[in-house]
Design goal:
Layout lengths: L12 H6 L6 E8 L6 H6 L1 E6 L7 E7 L3 H48 L16 H30 L3 E6 L4 E4 L1 H7 L3 H4 L4 H4 L6 H11 L5 E7 L5 E11 L5 E10 L1 H15 L9 H6 L1
Antiparallel strand pairs: 1-3, 2-3, 4-5, 4-8, 6-7, 7-8
């Protein structure tokens, strides 16, 4: 019972060195605790770990770090940070290129195509669905809307061109923006030649047509206004004029429609009938009714 078995093992410096990290630890040695270590060395390169022992004298494992270990760690950390930053910048650049190619460029092309569409064109113009599937769906929706607008404009144009009276459209400054074929025939010029001109310059009349038209648009009247005007042409013509205001979706007056109907023959016939009713057919003198009216 008093016997004891003691097993010992020789801890060589090589064995102790294998206990530490090769890149961080320079040496590991077993030394008595009485062997002092300078403060500077202890703070910078040395550390001590107490080791249990059967001897009265305590021992410690004295660990000596590599002199440039922390510098290498600092550079490695800095390298990792730099790689992360470069990776982030690369991802941002790739995202920007994808965004530019997949969204900005197709959107800019779509806006350019829409800008180039002429609302007054006689031909239907559609936009392309360049880009991803979303832009194709958007282009289809826009094309359907453009097609409905074009069809509505064509119906309005055909209606205006089919009217027997002369139709003149003006903006809110009394400038001509459209003439239908009957108005072109009446004035002897094409619609393109009349664009931007005033009614006074087109319709040779004694009345102040521009001032009357501007006053009518300023009133905001929703009911048409009728009057008679005489056009001073090679053969003077008496026209019945109907003026109506054009309003936008907000109810604001944006122009006017002037419809001219030639009533020269009607007025001539009325004058002939009045003359016959006032003059005696045999003597050619005014009859009694004419004298009473006077």
């Amino acid at each position: 019972d008093d016997e004891a078995l003691i097993v010992t093992r020789l801890l060589t410096p090589v064995h102790l060195q294998n206990l530490g990290q090769i890149n961080l630890i320079q040496s590991v040695t077993l030394v008595p605790l009485r062997q002092p270590v300078s403060i500077g060395q202890h703070l910078k390169l040395f550390s001590q770990v107490p080791v249990p022992t059967l001897l009265d004298e305590p021992f410690v494992l004295q660990i000596r770090q590599q002199s440039d270990a922390f510098e290498r760690l600092e550079w490695q950390s800095l390298l990792v940070v730099m790689l992360l930053l470069l990776g982030g910048m690369l991802m941002v650049a790739i995202g920007y290129l994808w965004l530019r190619r997949g969204l900005l460029k197709p959107f800019d092309r779509l806006m350019t195509e829409l800008k180039e569409i002429d609302p007054s064109a006689r031909r239907y113009t559609h936009v392309s669905g360049y880009g991803g599937a979303e832009f194709k769906v958007l282009a289809d929706r826009i094309n359907n809307l453009l097609l409905r607008i074009f069809q509505q404009n064509e119906r309005s144009r055909i209606t205006l061109e089919s009217i027997a009276e002369a139709v003149i459209l003006t903006n809110n400054k009394a400038k001509v923006i459209y003439l239908n074929p009957q108005a072109e025939s009446l004035l002897g010029l094409r619609s393109q030649q009349a664009l931007g001109r005033t009614l006074d310059s087109l319709l040779k009349s004694d009345d102040q047509l521009d001032e009357e038209l501007l006053a009518f648009m300023s009133s905001g009247n929703r009911q048409p206004e009728y009057s008679k005007v005489t056009l001073q042409m090679q053969q003077p013509r008496i026209m019945e004029r109907a003026v109506s205001n054009l309003c936008n979706h907000k109810g604001k007056v944006i122009g006017a429609v002037t419809v001219l109907r030639d009533i020269t023959q009607e007025e001539t016939l009325k004058q002939q009938l009045r003359l016959k009713a006032s003059v005696d057919g045999i003597t050619g003198l005014y009859n009694r009714s004419a004298f009473e009216e006077r």
